[in-house]
Amino acid sequence: MDPFPTLLLTRPAEANARFLAALRAAGVTLSALCSPLIEIEPLPPANCPEGDLVFTSQQAVAPFAAAFPRMQGRRAWCVGARTAEVARQAGYAVRVGAGQAKALEQQILAEGGAGPFVHVCGDHLAHDLVGGLLAAGRQAFALQVYRQVPQRPTRQALALLSGETPVLVPVFSPRTAQIFTKYLPENHAPLYLGAISTTVARQLAAVANAHIEVSRETSSAAMVELLKRLACRSVAT
């Protein structure tokens, strides 16, 4: 058995490349295998309601901007720093949240006024932000601009997960966790799973014989720290 673990990266290709570069910059030089479990498919809407935009995923920014190119300058509430940067580059006036949809909802309630608010989103939501805003008396709408198409792991990924070499897997969303657990072989390699949130960790709890840790915050930098710690732990054991 190889004493060094292998990284399995399961996000869409661009996000995998960006996270791998961050890991390399932080000194994590383990071999890596990319096997996206989600493919982003744009769903261009016909129209958009008036109001502030709300982005709880960076994946929503590009398809929205492509569908409504004349809305640059509109205020956009963004779940975290990375989403805010993508939205800023697309020309929106961003407000940055603390990294979780629920926290962004509370920020909007405290600072955003009566609305309306347009949650630009995909087909799978970890938190019903529009429902929360409506329950608090705000005007809010959901505008779906993409869907997450599940992907079967590659043959190389399944072989890795069926082997004896330890595998480190950062997991960034409940949807990815669901797909990962669906295709995970029953007799799997030693697993070290890094969950970006407690919600993701709960989705992974059904995985037998796996070491699971939760990131201290919902950011890429914190996930890099977590993966460094998991890498050390996997070698030590």
UniProtKB/TrEMBL annotation:
Lineage: superkingdom: Bacteria
SUPFAM superfamilies the record matches: HemD-like
Top-level EC class: lyase
Domain spans labelled Tetrapyrrole biosynthesis uroporphyrinogen III synthase: 20-224
EC identifiers of the protein: 4.2.1.75
Protein name: Uroporphyrinogen-III synthase
Molecular function GO terms recorded: uroporphyrinogen-III synthase activity
Keywords noted in UniProt: Lyase
